[in-house]
Predict the 3D structure of the following.
Amino acid sequence: MAYISSNANRWYCGRESSYGQIPAITATNRIPAVTMTAKNQREKSERKDKTGSRTWQGMPSGMRRQTSFQMTSYMRDWADPSQLPPHGPLMEAALGGSGMRWAGGTPAVGTTDLSIRFSAPHGLVPGQAIGSNGELRFVAAVADPSTVVLNAPFSVVPVVGVALGPTATYSVSAELPSVSIFDYWDPTTAVQRVLSGAAVDRLTFKLNGDFHEMEFKGMAQDLIDSASFVAGQGSASQFPVEPSTAASTYSPVPGNLGQVWLGVIPSQLFTVSQATIELRNNLDMRNKEFGSVLPQGINPGAREILMSVELFSQDDAATTALYQASRQQDPVGVMFQMGQNPGQLMAISLKSLVPDVPEFDDSDKRLKWRFRDTRAQGTADDEIVVAFG
């Protein structure tokens, strides 16, 4: 009997229609598996009764159970633009808003690099993304039913008459949905698992690694496995069978590809060496209610969105303007684009944050600036938008 290879592992993710109810999935729900830890344990309570012995006699069955998880996944290509991207359920669980899919549109005469005029009503709203020539931008304002103004200019003006590709946009909301995360292994006789009622407490984007990475941390209602499954767990009559994987292939996106736009008037910076964006939901689970062993829901707290950036210092106008904004405590806008080919794009927009004066690091051959844990701000559920294209 051979050991089970840690490489013989596949993940799928689906949004739940109600908390803890396992959804149906297909091969299109597969996401890249990198690393995952999941812990399911009983609540640690102390028995204070006098048993007449120094021997611990154990805990009774029926104690509350707690489940936590941490997983890392690569950004992958969006192979089927007729549906929302595979990572979409996890984005919805982290941000709260449902994915908005835009089918695309055709630029008309009057289009510029910063203002797009369409040949028909576009149906876009502020914050939604559009893509052109391997670039993603966000709608800063809707001028009229056929014209939008962008948050940053396209490098190349979209060609009149050439359709722009579809996008999927995810924004924040006051409430958070739950997802089920499916963890399948080879051989099929191995223990398979499903995290039901999974809630994302922290989402971290990492830029400029070998591949673009996303890290998810959170809590779940239960960790259900094929070895001990009982009908009714996760509202399922039987343990979910893995979809056919014969035609399920994907490509991770190299971590060195992308763009960074930053500033009071966003300018493209070419000297960023690494960056992270972390969203914290500060969750409390409904796990203290009488009559239940498992959590009964998700209770999100105050949202925190933190950005850290490291860049090489230059004496150009964009870098100098960024330093001046930090000294004067002026709000700046930020946009990160990951990838450079249609179907392999993800972009993150932070509408407003006030950076602290950067740390100077002169320990290397070139001077570096570091902005640490700068917190994004907004008006009401508008601090961050994530899009795929």
The two ends are 45 Å apart (CA to CA). The mean pLDDT is 92.
